[in-house]
Input
Amino acid sequence: MRELDVIIAKYQELRVQEIRCILATVVHVEGSSYRRAGARMLVDEYGNITGAISGGCLEGDALRKALYALDRQENKLVTYDTSDEDDAIIGAQLGCNGIIQVLFEPIDYTNRHNPCALLQVAAEQEVSLAISVIFDLDKTQNQLGTCLIANENQAVLGKQIQGNLHKVLLAKSKEVIKGGSSCFGKIEADENTHFVFIQQHQPPVKLILVGAGNDARILAQQADILGWRVTVMDGRPTHAKKERFVGTCQVILAKPEETLQNIQMDERSCFVLMSHNYNYDLSVLKLLLGNRAIPYIGILGPLKKYERMLNELADGGIEVSKEDLNKIHAPVGLEIGAETPAEIGLSILAEIQSVLNHKEPRPLKQKNEPIHDTKTNQFQKITL
Output
């Protein structure tokens, strides 16, 4: 499950049991940090933690701050400076050299727009969203907090926000969704100054595996751990059985021409053709060609298999566009020396991740820039 899904599941459990809890959100990072803005953890009144806001160096003190804010029942902003090697509070001395702002928000179960309730709605959506968190760097208390979620069409859910602030948040939310990158900045509206973190939230990756062999079982399990939504399709009743697959994987028995009938595709729908049946894979590939929404098509097998497919398509009068050729990855996966099904699955998932994030795979030690994208850290003055 995705970390957000785990947090929401814990929130629902605590709500039923009427156990008080508080949400901690990293709203801004200056410099280096193990986790970026948007990382969250949920703390209950007994000190149990779900999720993480760092690699372990902040959680101890954050737990104390969370319980204090929970007892006071007020939002609180806390700043951590991990660049101070002598800071006994941080203790772990990870050398991240970053300044991290964390917002603590007690959860009011009677408020249908409380932060966790808003995150729950966001997690259930199949479209990209923007989540707005408003805070004040000049104060520690009286933080507005997680207040608004919006989609590209500016359909919104959240707290009632009056005046120009609401308009600016909606306009910037649309920009964040289209640009695919979260932002941090300052809004001056209605004679007040507000700092805001607007997080670009994407729905989970949809991985469609064409073929239900033993290697697909392993790949489906690996993808499920990542929180991806997995669908497996096969024409063999002996293989297309739900009990052969773990987690929330959907298993469909279908002929190749029926492949797309049960799938709602979007820009995060990725296909891997791995039925070990040449004609089945080729039939599905024909269906996928020309679909501009699909970002990735992987084909398991040697290069000769893919070349044969292209030749047969050409002989049948089907011209594969340059756009389709760019999204087809055959043989599927990154070259990491994979031999076993689990290793091959790792190479496939890594390739899909790199494609969706528009990254050229390479060792991090070859990067001269910061590991993470620094756009979110850059201060913006946000106006209409």
About this structure: The longest helix spans residues 163-179. Confidence is low (pLDDT under 50) at residues 88-94.
